[in-house]
Specification:
Structural class: alpha/beta
Number of domains: 3
Shape: globular
CATH superfamily of the largest domain: Response regulator
CATH class of the largest domain: Alpha Beta
Number of helices: 22
Length: 598
Amino acid sequence: MNSKNIRILEKQVSEKFLPFVRKPSRYIGGEVNQTKKDLTSCEVTVALCFPDIYEIAMSHTGLTILYHILNQIPDVAAERLFCPWSDAEELLRKEQIPLFTLESKAAAADMDIIGISISNELCYSNVLNILDLAGVPLRSADRTDDHPLIIAGGQMSNSCEPIADFIDMFVLGDGEEAAVDIVNLVRNQKHTGATRKEILLTAAKTMPHVYVPALYTQSYDNDKNSSITPLDSSIPTQFKNATVKDFDMAPLPDKPIVPFAPAVHERVSIEIMRGCPGRCRFCQASFCKRPIRFRSVDRIVEMAIKNYEATGFDTVSLLSLSSADYPHLEELVEKLQQYFTPKQVGISLPSLKVKEQLQLLPKMVSSVRKAGLTIAVEAAGEKLRRAINKPIADEDLFAGIEAAYRVGFEKVKLYFMVGFPGETEQDIANIVDLAYSIARLKRKVDKKTANINVAISWLVPKPHTPLGYVGQKSRDYFQNAKKIIIDRKYELKAAFLRFNFHGIEQSALESAIARGDRRLGNVIESAWKAGARFDLWTECFNPQLWQDAFKAHNMELDTAAQKSFNLTDTQPWQHLGGPAIKHLQSHYNDAMEIIEQN
């Protein structure tokens, strides 16, 4: 890669852009605790990108951690780059202003690396829009040494073939150490005058957690079987997730940025454990994020205090896939209380389970936020819960929630999923009955019925999970399920139950893309060209654009969404980290055995 001058667009942004956008706070930078270096004195410059708007991106913990890590390196600068909203996109295109970083207003295309964290398939159209607005060719095959390396990480790296043609390099697994290794490699290679192709080849040869799609061709036996072939015999065909072994001492920011525009989560966020002891058979993260690792109580408390003192946020959120499985939870909350309760700072415990751990809540509750309790029940019946490997007993569920009511919780939010194999209409109706019982349970405490918010999502079979073999249910199935739930609510006259249904069209698209192969890249590009943006946002999502894009390439969205795999099929993501195939097959067989029981 050649060294190049970085265009600073401060004047254009100040005069032609910021005065005319609806929310300039999304684009101005300069917040408390931001890091801004002299880009001309840095050997490697990185634009860290999250493909959504500022308010969402500033709540992404992974981006915050990478920002901190890279800016700790003396000759490396990391700046932020987010997806502009529609008004800002229109203005950038009209005024021909390239997409810029927040800190220096540097043209993103002039940075050495654009690093994108991708957490959901419905962000793919935004990824293409960011590249186009930056002035970077969409496809890696069209880029030259004058363009930045486009590197993607996050959960979607483990199933990245649909977007493979647009990304130079995927990083699988944990990013803390991998990001440093990649930046060091780029710096060293720049010193030797290496081309981008040489840098990518070196990364592919030396880093088992790095996947460079351009170095492989993907071939297809039919709509299910696919395989990759390396263009160079010295590079691997099977990849491993990067793993931070000493998770306790893994870097954490001590001074997170305080956003100007209100972020969706304005709080001190500390990841207390990585991975999940339970393996819900629909959950990609629980199967890919291994092994399970914990931070020590003292380390968590130390960093929570530093973060609070640097930001003034009034809530400390303890993050993990299952916070209740943290082995020292009671001790941790007690120590946090000692410092934060006098300061009226609350402790947030997301991802609670409902067994013995939830029943510990009364002992820990004096400073735990009590506005609402959130529990992912997933299925109303115990048999179906066993099949999906979430074996919650109703007895434990009721005991845990009653304990929460007794210590002051007023509201409960329940998460359910519809579309599991073996599910019946009665299972669906029982979602309402279970929520009804939980609401009425509060009458044992204060003779009042609780308000229950119930979120209903539709099963999206995910790669690297046992249920990734099954096809998604049809749209008609989900529409009927929605009707069953609403009708049952009216039968029970349960006005205190509020149901929120995820978009069926969005779930179908997510399923169609999630388990797809590289041929979907053409579909994604066509949808983006037709105007697809912010597909995770209900008000922006246009399903017809995607239906048309699939048809333009002789595919059907519903066929892709409802596709099932045989256990012997070679899946398009099989080479991309994740658990052993035999392990997934064993889980799948166990699930089917439970479902088939009378």
